[in-house]
Amino acid sequence: MKKLALILTLLASCSAWAQGDAEAGKAKAATCAACHGADGNGIMAQYPKIAGQHAGYLEKQLKDFKLAMSTGGAQGRNDPVMGGMAMPLTEQDMADLAAYYASLPISDNTTPESSIEIGQTLYRYGDAERGVTACTACHGPRGNGTSLSGFPKISGQNAEYVQLQLEKFRDGQRTNDMNAMMRAVAAKLSDDEIAALSQYVGGLH
After folding, report:
1. For the whole prediction, is pTM greater than 0.85?
2. Is 14 annotated as a binding residue?
3. What's the DSSP call for residue 185?
4. Could you say which residues bind heme c 1 here (predicted)?
5. Domains along the chain?
6. Are 126 and 135 contacting, i.e. CB atoms less than 8 angstroms apart?
7. Is 135 annotated as a binding residue?
8. What is the secondary structure of 117-174 as a DSSP string?
9. Is 205 labelled as part of a ligand binding site?
10. What distances in angstroms separate CA 54 from CA 14, 100, 115, 129, 139, one per listed residue?
11. Burial of 98 from C-beta contacts in 10 A (0-12 / 13-18 / 19+)
12. CA distance 176 to 132
């Protein structure tokens, strides 16, 4: 019943989103390029690739950044830079930007050989003894996530960005994950495991 209620809640929230226009989003994306690049693939490794990401997920993050700013950090996703960028955006702006970046191709990435042993095991199987859920359960075997469920595409993502987010989930600095699922997993991971996972997902295809 809990799973059914969660799915229905997700579907209801998705239907409440504005319909995005990719062409309109392109015209509004000039400022985004400073960090995310003209093609949405980021200009530095600590910035996420947003090209090819699910539109619903991108839209939710923008809303969460704005919510954090408007609630003094009590809700949403805290980030002073993105919060400032999101504050003047309307819901239509967010939907348009999300549609635009979702339409762009993500650039290729690779998995270092050194990260495969630890990263692949945790990603595919988790660690039952420690209660670590396999990443594939939500993000899929190829790291593509699921749009309707709100799970992001992580395949091809910058390793440094993924590592920063896992550390933030672990430390409780990022709290906009559904039902605290990411916080529950990240809390049980060591620095070495986070580093290996972050590098491993880059080359998932």
Report:
1. yes
2. no
3. H
4. 32, 35-36, 82
5. 22-27+37-103 (1.10.760.10), 113-203 (1.10.760.10)
6. yes
7. yes
8. HHHHHHHHH-BGGGTB--THHHH-TTS--BTTTTBPP-TT--HHHHHHHHHHHHHTS-
9. no
10. 12, 10, 26, 33, 12
11. buried
12. 19
pLDDT by residue, tens only, the chain of 205 residues = 444 444 444 444 444 556 999 999 999 999 999 999 999 999 999 999 999 999 999 999 999 999 999 999 999 999 999 999 999 999 999 999 999 999 999 999 999 999 999 999 999 999 999 999 999 999 999 999 999 999 999 999 999 999 999 999 999 999 999 999 999 999 999 999 999 999 999 998 7
Structure tokens at 137: 């359960």
Question: Does 138 show up as a binding residue in the annotation?
Answer: yes
| C-beta atoms surrounding 13 within 10 Å | 12
Sign of the alpha-carbon torsion through 163, 176, 53, 79: negative
CA distance 76 to 82: 12
C-alpha atoms less than 13 angstroms from C-alpha of 80 in its C-beta half-sphere: 0
Dist CA 109 CA 91 (whole Å): 32
- C-alpha gyration radius of the chain: 17
